[in-house]
TrEMBL record, chains A, B:
<dbReference type="GO" id="GO:0005634">
    <property type="term" value="C:nucleus"/>
</dbReference>
<dbReference type="GO" id="GO:0051287">
    <property type="term" value="F:NAD binding"/>
</dbReference>
<keyword id="KW-0560">Oxidoreductase</keyword>
<dbReference type="InterPro" id="IPR006109">
    <property type="entry name" value="G3P_DH_NAD-dep_C"/>
</dbReference>
<keyword id="KW-0520">NAD</keyword>
<dbReference type="GO" id="GO:0046168">
    <property type="term" value="P:glycerol-3-phosphate catabolic process"/>
</dbReference>
<dbReference type="GO" id="GO:0005975">
    <property type="term" value="P:carbohydrate metabolic process"/>
</dbReference>
<dbReference type="GO" id="GO:0141152">
    <property type="term" value="F:glycerol-3-phosphate dehydrogenase (NAD+) activity"/>
</dbReference>
<feature type="region of interest" description="Disordered">
    <location>
        <begin position="192"/>
        <end position="214"/>
    </location>
</feature>
<dbReference type="GO" id="GO:0005829">
    <property type="term" value="C:cytosol"/>
</dbReference>
<protein>
    <recommendedName>
        <fullName>Glycerol-3-phosphate dehydrogenase [NAD(+)]</fullName>
        <ecNumber>1.1.1.8</ecNumber>
    </recommendedName>
</protein>
<dbReference type="InterPro" id="IPR006168">
    <property type="entry name" value="G3P_DH_NAD-dep"/>
</dbReference>
<dbReference type="InterPro" id="IPR011128">
    <property type="entry name" value="G3P_DH_NAD-dep_N"/>
</dbReference>
<feature type="domain" description="Glycerol-3-phosphate dehydrogenase NAD-dependent C-terminal">
    <location>
        <begin position="266"/>
        <end position="412"/>
    </location>
</feature>
<dbReference type="Pfam" id="PF07479">
    <property type="entry name" value="NAD_Gly3P_dh_C"/>
</dbReference>
<dbReference type="InterPro" id="IPR008927">
    <property type="entry name" value="6-PGluconate_DH-like_C_sf"/>
</dbReference>
<comment type="similarity">
    <text>Belongs to the NAD-dependent glycerol-3-phosphate dehydrogenase family.</text>
</comment>
């Protein structure tokens, strides 16, 4: 579909974030910008929140004869010198074309593709820092799992990033444990990308041009609208000097032999799967802790997937597809992984086994980190309560009621019986 | 929907088979025939392949003062006296209304509902023994997992039972480990039941009457036809003295607080899920054995579910629905359970860990029992080869090629890449 060599410019890729998942995704795309030199500039800028880091003595990069190892160094300097993120992804060699950059502004300068991979608490501030400084026709991909719940409703991170920067933002999510992807252990992921088509030279990503050629209602808006929101960012068309960001070309940016990518249109579905599975993983952990076996755990996952679908269709109806949850890595596969050994699963299981409140297990086990499942469960419940829809989501509601001590894990089958069977 | 008390007769239920799953299902339905006395006769006949059994000394039913414990007894006598299947489901108290019966003929006499739960090798002979001796309007439900592959093609057990006895036969399958269901640990299952409607008094099970009121092409035939078969059993309508076997009433026969049932129409889908997941479980075991982690395992399951859907739609096209595989217990949940700890998964994993052929692991681990996944993989492959469709099922084909030593588990990502991504 792509006519090679026909474009005057190449895409420039920037990764915003450099934790273990951010660095891993930077590695993936940097391998691909080299491999697909017809589409992408080789160099990948990666924004690093600068900090002074001392290389641990156990690290393979530790060298007692080098100044790098004997006194604290800026993390960007270590990454660019050692080709390793010694703090957040130790032991994984990084491609030479990744450039750790302490300035977020210079990271995004001239980039046509912005990949967001940050902890939740840094998103707003980071967007603030680059607002008006990104190319107006840049396109984003959010790798951030979770949803933002406020009094106004639920917003996806892809939506809020897109809204804040006035650009289109897709999403990447899947059954991906960062450290395993970094070690090139095989996995799959899902990339959702479906900007409105605004240029006859750049048909819709799937190849079939849409009817309207200059619409300003993005997927962001149609879903936001559903939830009573009004913002309608005006999207700027990608100039025709650049290769189109078709599904085919987006796949070339993310797909590796060890990281299989499937492209879909459903940004909301991809984002929701990554957020809501954490709620389900708590229930899976509880029934496992009760010793109810794999049957019960699989039943929780199945019911959980069905409630994800219902939630998506009810509150993000325009774009959400059942298959995103039932057939893609971001749905069923991520659910399976999270209910097999993720931290939400493990802490919930331990809370039953040790007969302790989950908050206590969280403190003991997570070394100051927080469970996403518990906060998402409460946020989702508050949202459902406001909408008067609690009863239609018996599993999500059961998780909330168990967390607040109103019900016990043993009650799950009863709580689900009337609604799901 | 059921008008209580309006029917002169009640349904009589027989269970054919008394292994651990057969006895467990007999327990489930015997609890329900008592609870729904308006629809069902309380007594449940259970056919037991008679054998002389000595109660093991470790059994809680062992009583040195009783003749039952000191010399071998007919298994039916032990079951009916002790209310326990000491050989195949020890330690689980059985309802008093189960009657173990050594005569298959007398077991099925006057039964309107026949539940088949036998090892594969007994099905043909058992059907032979009762052919012409079941009520012509009896309805069957097969709980037997697997498919029969012969030179003529693939046949479901529900189909072959229906064909042999000239009755309609549905299917029950789900993420159900017999011993866990027997102990009343919560799980879900799927019952597929969709006989052609033949009587205005008895509309189609879902409540919406079909157009034709006396068709003789059952689901069995439409699918068999697809595979070049010709048999068209003439179905006899259920007499109007009996309560209709609606989805609502079938659910009352199987649903328990610890065993949640969902009814669907798709008999082929329900049956195929239970057979094909064993092939996928081998691949899941291999990647787990390679240490590729939960991401890779979840990817195998996801691809496996998608190949099940494709297989069903390609070869059983009239009746198979995607959702049966992606949304029901018999599909996604059974896949998860089988790829978490089933014997196919375990032996495949051990074969990688111990670097031994899977046949050797099978001999060492299974005490003479056989893996279903390996034989199903070969049978399915032979079928696909005949149809010229191997390349369209890269995972099923990969499993076969790895089993015969043509490829290695490490090749799975490559073998899947071109087709699934």
């Amino acid at each position: 579909m792509t006519s090679l060599g026909a474009y005057a410019k190449k895409h420039r890729v920037a990764v915003i974030g450099s934790g273990n998942w951010g660095t891993t995704i930077a590695k993936v795309v940097a391998e691909n910008t080299v491999e697909h030199a017809d589409l992408f500039e080789s160099d990948v800028q990666m924004w690093v929140f600068e900090e002074q880091v001392t290389i641990p003595k156990g690290s393979s990069s530790y060298d007692p004869g080098s100044e790098l190892s004997t006194k604290p160094q800026p993390l960007t300097h270590l990454i660019n010198t050692l080709r390793e993120n010694v703090k957040y992804l130790p032991g994984v060699p990084l491609p030479k074309n990744i450039h750790a950059n302490p300035s977020i502004e210079s990271t995004v300068k001239d980039a046509t593709i912005l990949i967001f991979n940050l902890p939740h608490q840094f998103i707003a501030k980071s967007c603030e820092g680059i607002k008006g400084k990104v190319l107006p026709f840049a396109r984003g991909v959010s790798c951030i799992k979770g949803v933002e719940v406020s009094d106004q409703g639920i917003e996806l991170f892809s939506e809020s990033i897109g809204r804040k920067l006035g650009i289109y933002c897709g999403a990447l999510s899947g059954a991906n444990i960062a450290s395993e992807v970094a070690l090139e252990k095989w996995s799959e992921t899902t990339v959702a990308y479906d900007p409105p088509s605004m240029d006859s030279r750049h048909p819709s990503p799937k190849g079939s041009p849409r009817q309207s050629i200059d619409i300003n209602v993005s997927d962001i808006d149609s879903t936001a609208l559903d939830r009573g929101e009004k913002s309608k960012p005006q999207l700027t068309p990608l100039p025709s000097e650049y290769p189109p960001l078709s599904h085919e070309n987006m796949k070339k940016l993310f797909h590796r032999p060890y990281f299989h990518v499937r492209l879909v249109d459903d940004v909301a579905g991809v984002s929701l799967g990554g957020a809501l599975k954490n709620v389900v993983a708590l229930a899976a952990g509880w029934v496992d802790g009760l010793g109810w076996g794999d049957n019960a755990k699989a039943a929780v996952m199945r019911v959980g997937i069905m409630e994800e679908v219902k939630f998506g269709k009810m509150f993000f109806s325009e774009s959400v597809k059942t298959q995103t949850f039932t057939e893609e890595s971001c749905g069923v596969a991520d659910m399976i992984t999270s209910c097999s050994g993720g931290r939400n699963f493990r802490c919930a299981k331990l809370s039953v086994v040790k007969k302790k409140p989950i908050e206590e297990v969280e403190r003991e086990e997570l070394n100051g980190q927080k469970l996403q499942g518990t906060s998402t469960a409460h946020e989702v419940n508050a949202f459902l309560k406001r909408k008067g829809r609690e009863a239609e989501f018996p599993l999500f509601t059961a998780v909330h009621r168990i967390l607040i001590g109103e019900k016990r894990p043993e009650d799950i089958p009863d709580l689900l019986e009337s609604k799901t069977s």
